[in-house]
């Protein structure tokens, strides 16, 4: 029983088609304004698209084809939305917050409370049952919100950056919790965190300007990104161009020597990908195979762990502080970024 969506919303430049399997978690990545929250709002029934259809198996969430105009109310869709904020009912106890979903679905008060206790125990919050939301920490409240969403037994769980509002101590706990409770469950999670995608998602899509620019298994997308956003998220440099027998040629005419993926051939649109740690910085051009040497102008220098990240022309290099000092690097300087061909992977864009 697969979830399928096709939806367009002209006012937001949104046009997306996707599917999610019955026990699959899909991560949605993308820059601010890409359409990620629009996607979840359409699925949850909080925003009506201009056209399209969505279904979970035989259950139609909406079908806006000419002459049909079918629209299922949000509460009848079998979806549950977990937002950045817990949004618990302040006048109800933790137990009754979690019991709200089963009660709304027609369960008796004792049965709903029994379901709530089971899910509170599942998220390690059983001891919080009698507390009001105002008595909970941010991490505790978000765990209760997870229990409330799951107690409704949704066919599709929607998570909108659930770790975004948590501190550095609470976020890892919730991430481990979600990994456990999402196993065998259909879910879509919006995140800006590569760790969320790696730990929680089976597949990833990248949204840019309301459209899917990249999709695939999580590790494949993050190890071989095809979009600049995914490359940045994975901490990699990306140069786009046309594949050649030796690598690729960029739009500005740079010849990039690298290792070609088996799936790319000369003449195809392609990207060259390499880590900042593979980039050396020189004050003059370095020649000789198997090196690439690109003239760039430094835009920023910033700390990056125990290294200095040198940013220039959309590319980045990680070098030691002593190397930066020896070269006298500063924003505005013209330098050369040098990368060995063996460190650059070339694959289809």
Description of the structure:
25% of the residues lie in helices and 34% in strands. The protein has 349 residues and is α+β, with helices and mostly antiparallel strands. The chain has two domains: 3-223, P-loop containing nucleotide triphosphate hydrolases (Rossmann fold); 236-348, RNA polymerase II/Efflux pump adaptor protein, barrel-sandwich hybrid domain (OB fold (Dihydrolipoamide Acetyltransferase, E2P), Beta Barrel). It has a six-stranded mixed β-sheet with strand order 7-8-9-3-10-11, with helices on both faces. The longest helix is centred in the first third of the chain and has 14 residues, at 109-122. The protein starts with a strand and ends with a strand. Residues 3-234 form the ABC transporter domain. Pfam families: ABC_tran, TOBE. Keywords: ATP-binding, Molybdenum, Nucleotide-binding, Transport. Residues 287-348 form the Mop domain.
């Amino acid at each position: 029983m697969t979830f399928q969506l096709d939806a367009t919303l002209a006012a937001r430049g949104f046009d997306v088609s996707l599917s999610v399997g019955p026990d699959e978690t899909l991560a949605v990545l993308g820059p601010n304004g890409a359409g990620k929250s629009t996607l979840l709002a359409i699925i949850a029934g909080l925003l009506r698209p201009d056209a399209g259809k969505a279904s979970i198996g035989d259950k139609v969430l909406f079908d806006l084809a000419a002459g049909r105009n079918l629209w299922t109310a949000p509460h009848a869709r079998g979806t549950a939305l977990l937002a950045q904020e817990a949004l618990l009912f302040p006048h109800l106890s933790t137990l009754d917050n979690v019991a709200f979903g089963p009660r709304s679905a027609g369960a008796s008060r004792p049965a709903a409370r029994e379901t709530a206790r089971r899910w509170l125990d599942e998220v390690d919050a059983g001891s919080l049952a009698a507390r009001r939301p105002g008595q909970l920490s941010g991490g505790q409240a978000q765990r209760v919100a997870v229990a409330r969403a799951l107690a409704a037994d949704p066919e599709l769980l929607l998570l909108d950056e659930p770790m975004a509002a948590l501190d550095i101590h609470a976020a890892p706990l919730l991430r481990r919790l979600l990994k456990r409770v999402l196993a065998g469950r259909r879910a879509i999670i919006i995140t800006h965190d590569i760790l969320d995608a790696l730990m929680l998602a089976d597949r990833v899509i990248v949204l840019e300007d309301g459209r899917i620019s990249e999709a695939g298994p999580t590790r494949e997308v993050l190890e071989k990104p095809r979009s600049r956003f995914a490359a940045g998220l994975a901490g990699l440099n990306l140069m786009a161009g046309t594949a050649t027998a030796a690598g690729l040629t960029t739009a500005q005419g740079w010849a990039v020597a690298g290792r070609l993926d088996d799936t790319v051939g000369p003449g195809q649109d392609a990207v060259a990908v390499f880590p900042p740690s593979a980039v050396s910085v020189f004050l003059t051009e370095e020649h000789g195979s198997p090196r690439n040497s690109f003239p760039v102008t430094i835009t920023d220098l910033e700390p990056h762990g125990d290294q200095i990240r040198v940013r220039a022309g959309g590319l980045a290099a990680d070098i030691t502080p002593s190397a930066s000092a020896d070269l006298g690097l500063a924003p505005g300087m013209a330098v050369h970024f040098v990368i060995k061909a063996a460190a650059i992977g070339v694959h289809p864009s």
